[in-house]
Structure formats: C-alpha cells, structure tokens
C-alpha cells in the first residue's frame, strides 16, 4: 500500500474511505476509491472500511456521530461483478468469507452506539443502498437523476450486503419482497422516502452535509437514534413474522405466485431472495444476515448469475458504450426523420422518434393512411396522459412533431430516412427512388426489413454507401432492440450514424452483416420450426407451448408462428429456396414444412391475422389451441422428455447462432446475446445465445457433446457446425 | 427366543447430525429442522451407493414439539425435499423424550411383522428454533387434568428421586463430570466419527461437524457454583407440595439438579435404516445389528422418571435375556439421578452404562435422542466386539422405553 503525507503532516493511508473529524467531533467517512471512477465493494473498500470502523470504535468516546458520504458522482456502485464472474462452486468458502467480512464492518458501524447518517449525494444501487441501510438515518438529495434500490435480482444475485435482512426488518416481509427485493425497482428520492427507504430529502447537494451534520448534532446523545429499530428491545417486524397467523395465511402463496410470474422459468435469484427473507424473518438479525450470505454465495458461484451479468451488465454496457460503432465517425444527431410507410411498423417508428424529440415526416400513399399512422401515436400518448405519466401539453408537443403526408416533397430537409413499406423488394426500390433525391444529399437511408438482403435492396438507391438495414421489432414502442444490417457497400459512417439514430430514440442497436434473415430472424425461425417439428412428431401441442415458457421463453412458439403468419413462413421459405437454387444449392428438408403446409393447405389456417392458425381466435374471448391439432397431429404414447423439448428450442437457436458466426453474419458475442434476448425472446436466464453455449454444463465442449446427442436422437439439424467444434476443441470460445 | 419363521429386523445403518447448542448462538440455530433431516436422507444414499430409496416403505420420525417449522408431518415433507421417490411415505410421532427410539421400535415391529421391508426411523428436534413445550398440551395446561393427575415438571421428579435415594449434590455432580469426561474422550478418539454426519449449507460449506455441547474438563468443583434449576418453581410454583402429597413420607425435596447435571438443550437429527434380511441381501447392505425386543411400560407419573426399569425388564424378558447378558447399556441422561436410579434398579455397573458419555455432556435433542442412542450403542458394540446392548429412556407421563439389540 502506498502512503501519503497529508497537509496536516499526519500519515494517511491509501484508502477508499477517507476519515475526517470536524470541530463538532463529527466524523465524516467519505467513500472515494482513488483507483476507480466509481466506488465498488472491492478489496480496497473492504480494508478501508474495516480500518475506518476500527478507528471509530477506538475513538468512540470522542465522537459525536458519523456521516457517511461519497466523493464520486454516484454514492456507491455496489459489488465487484468482475470478481463474481470468476467464482466457481469450489470457491464458495472464500466468497462466503468475503461477504461476511464486508457485512461485519457494516454491522459494527450500525452498532457503534453513536448516531450514523448516510448523506446520499448520488445514485445508490445495490451495495450502495446497503451501506446506507446500515446507517441509522438516510438523507438524500432530491434530484430525479438519483435512483435508489437493490437491483441485484436483475443480475441473478441477491442484495447480500444486508439488503434482504434490513429491508425485511424496515418494511416487513411482504413490502420488502414485492416492492424492493424481487422487482429490483429503482426509486427516485421522493418515492424512496415514501416507501421508507430513506428518511429525509434536501434540495441540493450543497445542503447535504449541513443537513447530515445537523441530524447528528440533534441526536448526539440520543441512544435510541443511534440504535437500529431491530436492535431496540420490543422491536416488532412490520406485518409480523412467518409464525404470526396473519402472515402465515399468505405465506404459502408467496413461492407459488413467484413461479406463476416467471411462468415457471427457473430463475434462482428470486427464489433465493424469498428464502433468505422468510428464513431470516424467523431468526435474530445476525443469524438472518448469515443466512442471506449463504444464499448470495450460492448465487455468486452458480451459472445463472454469470449468464445474467454477462448479458445485462457487460454486453449491454459494451453495446451502449459503442463497442460496435466505427469509432472515427463524428456523432450524428437526427433532427428531421422521414418515415416511408405509415403501417404498423412505420407508425411505431414515428412514435418512438417523436418521443425522442425528433421531427418526423410520416409518408404514405394517401393522407388518410398517413393520418391513421399518426393516430397510433395519439392513442399511445393518450394512454400515458390518462395514467398520469404525461401532461396534455407534453402530449400535444410530441404529437406536433409528426407531420403526416402523401407528398414526397414534404421529405425535403430530412437528414435521415427509414423506409417501412411491405416486404416487397420492388416496392421498396420504388419508394426509395422517389424519396432519395428529395431528402438531404447526405441523408442516412435505412430500410426496415426483417429478412430481405440489404445488398440487393441497396441496388435501388443511388447512394448505396449511405444505405443500411434497420430491423425494428413489433410493437416498436415496446421492443427495445434494433438490428442494423450492413450491406456490401454500406459505409462505416452509415453504420455509425444508424447506431446514433437508434440510440437517439432510446433503443439498443446491434450490428450484423447482410444475409437472408440477418441474425435475429434466422435464429428465430429455427425456434418456430422446431415447435412445428415437435407437432409433426406427435407431441401434445400444449406441451410444446408450455415447455417453451417453462424454459424461460416469454411466449410460446406455436402462438408466435401464428403471429408471424403461416403463409409468410411459407413465403420466406420459398424465397430462401429460390435464392439457394440460384446459388446452386438445395436446402435441407425440415419436418416443420409439412405441418405448415397442411395447416394452410388442408385446414385453411393461415395464422392470427387470418383469424385461424394453431390457435382459435374467438371474437369475444382469449385465444386457445385449435382442438384439431390434437386430432390431426398429436400421437398418444409419444413421450419426448420435457428437458429435450426445451433443449431442442435452445440448441436450435444457439446452433444457428454458431452458423451465423461461421458465415460472418454476426461477429460480436455481445450482439448475439443482447440481440437474441431483446429481439427474439431467448430466455434471459441463459444470458443469450452465445452465453448459453459457453455457459452450458461442461462449457462449450459440453454443449457440443449434448448437441451430438440431440442430433443422434432428433435429426442432423442438431449436428454442431465444424467451426463450433473447433472453437470448443481449441478452447478459443467466442 | 425369537420365532425363527418371523422376519428379522436388522439395523443396516444409523447416522446422526452433530448436536448444536440449542440457543440462538448455537451453530445449528440457522439450520431449519427440515434441512437437518434432508442432510441425513442424502447421506444414506451417498454412503450406501447400493441403497435404493425406492425400496423404503416409510420414514418414521420422532418430533416432540411438532409445530412451526418442524410441524405438519415433517417426515413426509423431508422425503419430498430429499427427492426420494413419491412412493416413500412419512409419518411423525411423539412419545415425548422416547420419540426417536419409539420410531425405531415401531419400524422394527413393522418389519418383523412381515408387512413391510425397509423403514427409516429416527427423529429431529431443533430446540433453538422451536422451544420445548411451546406446543401446549392438556397435561400441563389444563387445570382439571393437571389437578386430577398430579402434574409436576420432570425436574421436580428428578430432584425427588435424588432425595429419596439419598443422592447428594456432589453425587449427581460426580456423575455429570464423568459423563463429560467419557464424552470428551470418545469425541477426541473419534468414536463418533462413523455416524456423525456434518451439517452443511447449500454451498456444501460445513456449518457444524461435531457435537458442540461437550465441556471437557468439567469437574465436581466446576459444577458446584451452578444454581439449582427447580428450587424456585418447586416452591413458588407449588410443585414440590403437589409431589409431596403423594410422597408423604418425604420431608422436603432436595433440589440437586441444575444445568450442568441435566440433559442439555440441543438441536439435532438422526436416522436408522431398519429392514428385513432379504431386503439387505437384495440391496447389498451389510447388517450391523439385530433388534431383538422392544418394550414400553410406565411407572408413577408424578415422579415421572422411573419407567426405564420396568420397560427394560419387559424387553429383556421378551428377548430371553437377563441383565447379566448385557454388554453395554445406553440410558438417556435426562437427569443424573434418573440414570443413577436406573443403574441401581437393574443392578448395572456404571462401567457398562453410557460408556461414551450421555445427554448431560452431549445434549438431548428430544425427538432425535432415542435413535441417536441406538446408533451409539451399535457403534460401540462393534468397536468393542461385544454382543448385547440395551437402550432405554425415561419418558414423560411416567413411561419408559427399551430396545434390546444384538450386534451382527
């Protein structure tokens, strides 16, 4: 450790927790990791906090109280995720010891016997809020850019720095679980005070330390203020403990409801959180805290947290910070966006852009059609107003940014264009032919298509270097992903600008290379085909559907096939086959094909839009599986194990991903992981398609071995591609 | 002797958790009772690879305070949580302090009847989490019943035994110190290692791996300062007076028992695998002992703790054995005077009784103790290469229980 000599001539250690005492004998502990831009629970923090608490205990009699604050923009960021990614089951003892050590210092701070106040100057999530919860009083700056909460559950973890134990004792089991722990909800300061997570708000950062010290001065001889409620005699847990009849009658529904919400998908973190909370509520604080550490250890050394941390922290951060963006291109900000086609997709794109402050020209063949597209935004905004999330004035402002038109001339001045007409190459070429010379000479030209090759579409424009694919997902206002496709002639500048526009409208971009179906549609197609293949084998249709949701897919695949429409599926297959024929290839036969063809040809069931597909769509009720499926497809006695069905979905998608890597369609594992989760519903608990392969039991080699088993049992489409086998054998991974 | 055509009840395995101090600072306080049992159900599979849980007919568990997180038929719940096949049943029973041995005896009887082949018998009690007597009950809590049946707490009965037998405070403390010395030696020499299964958390980390209640180095002198436990309730609670109505020749009760010469409050669980000879052959299991006879009996409920002698005599008679045939005896040390009185009743030398210490040193996890003692005696018969053993416990309500085993 380096040592520095401070202005006062005293020796002060290299520390992440600065210790200063003022004339009123108030000690200010300032969280300020000199090695990083944010404070985390790394080894330096741990040793620094231990030293600070040691000193507080030694000098206890000379201390009026303690203020804990931070010198960073955020208060404290939380646990060290890089370390957690490395922890294996055999490291459990060390992980447990580390967690217990971090908590022991906070417990000592809490039991110092002097009033301790957290002066929260910035966002306090996870470990940050947990430090604050170990203080007797919490004051936060009333600034809506600050959020407070314990979002560990979203990374497959639990707040094991005392977060479970303390929130349960502060709020009671039910509220702590539902409002704070299981949702990972992030509270703005005022809402956090209302919830009881913090005690006091101050108007500005300048007032924070003054208010904190004032609280200490007021309570410096107040023993009760220096004791947490749960350490006072006569403490009663709000809402009662599990042994109280009032709570006991609800308790059996806790885990059942949790499973219902997850549609049966196996998320270990919520289960661990609930267990730690309920078990902890039955015992004393210190035992509860140890139980919490054991559950956290279990999550940290397990695979699920690694999957979720990889996708939702590292991959998402990489993408958001521009890892896929050509770096030498100046940042682009769209001011006037032309949207060609005011159908479902165009209307959704116009809405998202207008919400982000961009002026939108919404063009369709008739003014009526264009107006109808604008009215989609009206409906969404009206809903926001009725729910109190927006004022009528704000609504009017957003709506005012959308100009509906049937006249190409209104596109003048657009610095970017997104075409969203029917999936017909000729039509797309036609509208671009009309628009390209009206918009700015350097405008970004984008086409929203889910499958058509961009290189071919680019032949319809006179500036192919500015032309890029921009695959939005439906419904646009809800789906967070946009898949950007580089055509053969697309310039890096166009890719960079496309990324900038996607981020400007607050969506997440991934970048892929051109290919029929690009990345997401190709991979999604394998899932849908597998569901149809299972039907061909005679598996019960309800099992086909439920296997998917139990595996963690947000929606069942036959229902999704209906959404896509069976005829479109036929159409895409035909186009793909023709393209293959042109290239002198034949596509392997897939057992899904007969099922789709019979559904359309024999039974006239074309999908949801046609009112009949795998499901019935009664006008006055919820859809249900068409009974004819059991009659015509299901075979009694067919018993494909549930795990196999689930792995057939997951492996198909992962193997298609591997093929996309092999063909150069996708080059970034972060893009594959985020794209598969956010675009096509790959189960988040596996962290995306690539993470699923590398995180499979036994690693990539284990994945390859299991793929071969599936191939032997269910068909050669499960045979791992050669370059995936090479990645597994060489250990190069992704 | 035993009828040769009846199936034999063989003991194939007997394991237990270590005993944790039964309070909030005890190591097992954080462990739910269900997990104590599940850990043992898992371990039976691990250490007996050829054991097929699907062959188990029933799991019988003694629990004396079957409420809260050890309520609601914890036996079946544990079977489910351990992932045993759904055909395996589970039942919880309560014969007060004898519950664990009652489970063994019922299992043995059911196996010997020929109705069933393989039963896991044992018990569990987390006294730190579910306090003793928190389940209520008519005997102590219903005045009309208590009045008619002269209810007094067990400790009063133990002190009354000492008074009647003339055991002084230093006599009972000497017994207690010997129990501690024997337990400490047995633990140090690893005599319990064969059967004590460490309690682990969900990460496999050890929570407790050996009995933590033992206090090596305990002496009569070190015990002398402990205050009597039952003097105050005997006097202010009126219980001495109730007992002396019946024991009218006794002038007053000498309250010699205290925390150091009574059984300790602890947490723990135990399981014994009992089956026919045929099922053992089928599963490739090696029998360690044969259960020859079992019995329950009773004596005066007010003094409450003299039941072991009539129960033991009854079981020995059924087994066709006499006291002299016994090589070792495990007599639950509920209170020092109870064990001393039992040795006197059966004319047993202390050298044969509780040779590795008892509940005074290691604690008495109510529902689990009986089956723990069964395992202890089987282990010790093997270690010493001896043949016959007797396990007995005093039981609430004046009952006594006994089991006679033969090492194989």
Low-confidence stretches of chain A: 1-12
Share of helix among residues of chain B?
25-40%
Give average pLDDT of chain A, whole number: 94
User: What can be said about the biggest beta sheet of chain B?
Assistant: 10 strands, mixed
Mean of residue pLDDT values of chain B: 97
Quick one: overall form of chain A? globular
Number of helices of chain A: 30
Number of strands of chain A: 20
Structural class computed from helices and strand pairing of chain B: alpha+beta
Count of distinct strands of chain B: 12
Provide the spatial order of strands within the biggest beta sheet of chain A.
Answer: 13-12-11-14-15-16-17-18
How is the topology of this model organized?
The complex is a heterodimer of chains A (734) and B (408).
Chain A: E1 3-5, E2 11-13, E3 17-21, E4 26-31, H1 43-58, E5 65-70, H2 81-86, H3 92-110, E6 116-120, E7 124-125, H4 127-133, E8 137-141, E9 148-149, H5 163-171, H6 173-181, H7 189-195, E10 200-202, H8 205-218, H9 245-248, H10 253-261, H11 268-281, H12 285-301, H13 303-320, E11 336-340, H14 344-355, E12 359-363, H15 367-386, H16 392-400, E13 402-405, E14 416-419, H17 425-435, E15 444-447, H18 454-457, E16 467-472, E17 481-486, H19 492-504, E18 508-513, H20 520-537, H21 541-551, H22 557-564, H23 566-582, H24 592-602, E19 615-616, E20 624-625, H25 628-632, H26 642-662, H27 669-680, H28 689-694, H29 699-714, H30 722-730
Parallel strand pairs in A: 4-5, 5-6, 6-8, 7-9, 8-10, 11-12, 11-14, 12-13, 14-15, 15-16, 17-18
Antiparallel strand pairs in A: 1-2, 3-4, 16-17, 19-20
Chain B: E1 10-16, E2 20-21, H1 33-47, E3 58-62, H2 74-81, E4 89-93, H3 99-112, E5 118-126, H4 138-141, H5 143-149, H6 154-165, H7 169-188, E6 199-200, E7 206-208, H8 220-223, H9 231-236, H10 239-246, E8 266-275, H11 277-283, E9 289-298, H12 308-319, E10 328-331, H13 336-346, H14 359-362, H15 369-384, E11 388-395, E12 399-407
Parallel strand pairs in B: 3-4, 3-5, 10-11
Antiparallel strand pairs in B: 1-8, 1-9, 2-8, 5-8, 6-7, 9-12, 11-12
Helix pairs in contact in B: 1-2, 3-15, 6-13
